Amino acid sequence: MTxxxxxxxxxxxxxxxxxxxxxxxxxxxxxxxxxPYEVGEADDFPxxxxxxxxxxxxxxxxxxxxxxxxxxxxxxxxxxxxxxxxPEGFAPPGPGPLRDLDDFLDRIVWRPVHESRFGFVAWNLxxxxxxxxxxxxxxGTWAIVFTDPNPAGGRWVDYYRSPIVLDPMANGRVEVSxxxxxxxxPRDFDERGRQYAGRLATLQDAVSALTGQRVEDLAxxxxxxxxxxxxxxPARVETLTERIVAMRELYRAVRAEAASWPxxxxxxxxxxxxxxxxxxxxxxxxxxxxxxxxxxxxxxxAIGAGIEAASIGARTGTLVRRLAVPGLDVDITACYPVGxxxxxxxxxxxxxxxxxxxxxxxxxxxxxARVAAAVAAGLLDHPEAWRSLAFxxxxxxxxDVMTVHVDLFGTEATVTAPIAEGSREFWTTGFDLxxxxxxxxxxxGPGSVPEIVEAWTFTxxxxxxxxxxxxxxxxxxxxxxxxxxxxxxxxxxxxxxxLLLAAMRAVAKTDPTLSEPERIRRRGMLxxxxxxxxxxxxxxxxxxxxxxxTRHRVITSDGAVTLRHGTPERPGPWAxxxxxxLVEGAGRLLLTLLVHEARVRGGQVVQAxxxxxxxxxxxxxxxxxxxxxx
Amino acid sequence: xxxxxxxxQVQEIRERFATLARWAGLPITPDRLEGGRVVTGEGxxxxxxxxxxxxxxxxxxxxxxxxxxSLRRFAxxxxxGGDVDGRxxxxxxxxxxxxxxxxxxxxxFARECYxxxxxxxxxxxxxxxxxxxxxxxxxTLTHPADLTAARRAxxxxxxxxxxxxxxxxxxxxxxIARLVAGASWxxxxxxxxDGEPVTLMAAKDRAVGAVRTWRVFLNxxxxxxxxxTLDADDxxxxxxxxxxxxxxxxxxVGATRTxxxxxxxGERAEDLIxxxxxxxxxxxxxxxxxxxxxxxxxxxxxxxxxxxxxRRPVPRNAEAARRLxxxxxxxxxxxxxxxxxxxxxxxxxxxxxGRQRIFCRRHASYPGSRRxxxxxxxx
Lengths: 630, 379
Prior knowledge:
The complex is a heterodimer of chains A (about 625) and B (about 375).
Chain A: E1 22-29, E2 31-32, E3 49-56, E4 62-70, E5 78-82, E6 98-99, H1 101-115, E7 119-122, H2 125-132, E8 135-137, E9 142-144, E10 147-149, E11 155-157, E12 164-168, E13 174-178, E14 199-202, H3 203-211, H4 218-224, H5 240-259, H6 273-282, E15 296-297, H7 300-310, E16 316-318, E17 320-321, E18 324-332, H8 335-343, H9 347-350, E19 351-358, H10 361-377, E20 392-396, E21 400-408, E22 411-419, E23 426-429, H11 430-442, E24 451-463, E25 470-472, E26 476-478, E27 493-494, H12 497-508, H13 516-534, E28 541-543, E29 552-556, E30 559-563, E31 569-571, H14 577-600, E32 605-609, E33 612-618, E34 620-624
Parallel strand pairs in A: 3-7, 5-6, 7-14, 15-19, 26-27
Antiparallel strand pairs in A: 1-21, 2-29, 3-4, 4-5, 8-9, 9-12, 10-11, 12-13, 16-32, 18-33, 19-24, 20-23, 20-24, 21-22, 25-26, 28-31, 29-30, 32-33
Chain B: E1 2-6, H1 7-16, H2 18-24, E2 31-34, E3 37-40, E4 48-50, E5 64-70, E6 73-78, E7 89-90, H3 106-122, E8 136-140, H4 144-153, E9 162-167, E10 174-178, H5 214-223, E11 229-230, E12 243-244, E13 246-247, E14 250-258, E15 271-273, H6 278-285, H7 291-296, H8 301-308, H9 315-332, H10 361-364, H11 368-378
Antiparallel strand pairs in B: 2-3, 5-6, 6-7, 8-9, 9-10, 11-13, 14-15
Helix pairs in contact in B: 6-9
């Protein structure tokens, strides 16, 4: 602020040294105490496929639809269907025979797709079946499409044929499968006793996964895959023929691209994480939470401490508000993949892991000294020092600046702020202790390390047996048998998966062999895959669709607890919360180092978020008067 | 005053990250700065890169300004603000989830929103038709709970259909309509939450019974505070604060354990293990509240005394007590507008109570000359 010349500022000297702290509540996650689903190699998507599309009426019911076949003997198959909202005597334009709804469902959906195990593809399967459904059961999660006419009026539900099960996912997608039916055929059951769920693929999900962005429109998707697009906008009766032709071309392009990634199958592409999951499966990486105690000695309390530390979130901050400030916006390249590599997190997947509970005074002092030494050595000059900070710790703050996720009566925020003495203890990472040291130095302090009251450290034993190298498109290879710092001379074989994906993305930017749509797809997909693989998949969990009030167990940093309320969850297949906590901590430290470097030069940051910051700067530097900034 | 680094110093910062770039081995193009121009292919690769749109096609570092009304909402734009076609980078936070009321592409529409905000800040004129259109929030009904709630208003809704909500200007109620592709909001069949037909009115010429417009919605951006921060005078930052902010010290007084956050829908994580001391903090928050304020909140002072003495409250009183404690705590933290006002003495954050108008009890006892100086400084 500019001093007012007419006021004697000596009178306005500080009355109090520091404002009173805001009393807030810590918000931290718990983790489900159930094992994750086992992930295995999925069978290829069937070669014989039926593709269908529909035009909806204003009430969401289909007016008409169109279908085509693809694969051996099916290239010539095509036809039209009348939806439940079709007017009497309506004959929509298009190729092939015109079928009424029952005929279409019986001859095109049930017999080939359920009985003969063909694949079925629509732009959005859930919308397709919902537009055809006679009614819905089970709170709208079962679409009843197979019915028979009731002579007394209305229709009977055909329980001998499956309902279409709609399984809403947390990311807004809906997974679609055949549900259970009366008197199932013995061959419907798999080895686990589950009825055949069908091979049904939503093209929109596959396109979104392969481009790393939610694609809402078929025309946009076609352009991204270099396919002649149909008219833009929602499907209409008169555009259905063009749409189904474009859709078949798009399906072929998407299928070919999905098959080029190891372990990826068209109907298992929830998001770009399918690329990472496929690589793990192809590399024979065992799922961390399903490993035995011989190779993974991590007690539940360490998992609980990990999820508590992993729920802190990324560092963000707004430090200049409502002024238009000149400067430069800078980003940290591949922040989370690099953070993952610096913390050595991939070793959790490829090595035997042992955990050590540290609570003795001397051992905790050793950890404190480790942090001080790493910061003193220079974290930007000594990448090898980062591994010494890869531990989880419970701290007792006393004015230290740390990042925490807090709540004040409904207002939640991840804040990096001084945490007053007398605060409750909380779990964080060694990287955050280094962050506190840097912040203390920036405030003119001696660089104190916050007090550690308890910690979990990790040691890695032998490399797991049976790991395989994995080849990606473009001649790139991930070799999990190598050290995670390994990189071949030609730069194509990497020991670290996440850095490999980040490198592939960087090269795709200028690769002359890629067409423009290919470049956009690959860079978008690799961005999501590298971040999700490096961090998100380690803390993922999915809500379970069970009756309210079902008992479920969760892991906290103090052990497992049984709850009778709340939504039960199941861990993601590759979840391992301590790894997520360490990656996120390393990411916060990278951003803090960037802010610190600006501050030591006397600079100021306008805003910082996760992996980048806007630094106040002009060509020649100097002081800016706030009055003139807007 | 705000200290600005020179471009050369920012380049120095980038070069400090060269060792990490070498260690990571990522194929990063080396560059160096030469007279305000980034020369690629020479110098050293750095892990820190200039984000778009900082560097022009000729390698020249542009003159850009960053405007940030609140957390994760920003516009980085050319110094020549009138250059609409110039390279803008705009956050789509909150704006992007709403139905785009214009014919512009989503990114361009977000830029127009920030141009409106910048015009408001400088007092310039900015007008666009969409400013008086209602803000519509689309929701695709995939979850059973959402479907059940929406079917109360529109019984024949099917799963996977999309509805739009418009929020009333005053109050928390919303109107709902089935989204029909290509149809204007005026042609949609609007219902109240209970299914009563209603004619939607945008809050242009009238406020009562009208729904929030883009103008009202964007104006809220300017009033939305950055939570848990202090202004340059070490006071709690609130919606009106402008300029430098610093994080406010916090005191962790409890912990709630939650389930997962649904990032896709932005839903708050479900509370699974509540903090045992939460009720105690509510009671502490009621300490010192005047009898009048308690009564206005629907609590008899006698009831509060009994609750503080350990009596178990009836649900209605417990809810009223929580609401009052929440309001007070939020205004204490600068998250909500505090009608009570605060002491104007520098670095004093004391809330004014009773008949206090300018100074708290402590600073009211300071010499008159000093209070006069404080009053002048605060003017």
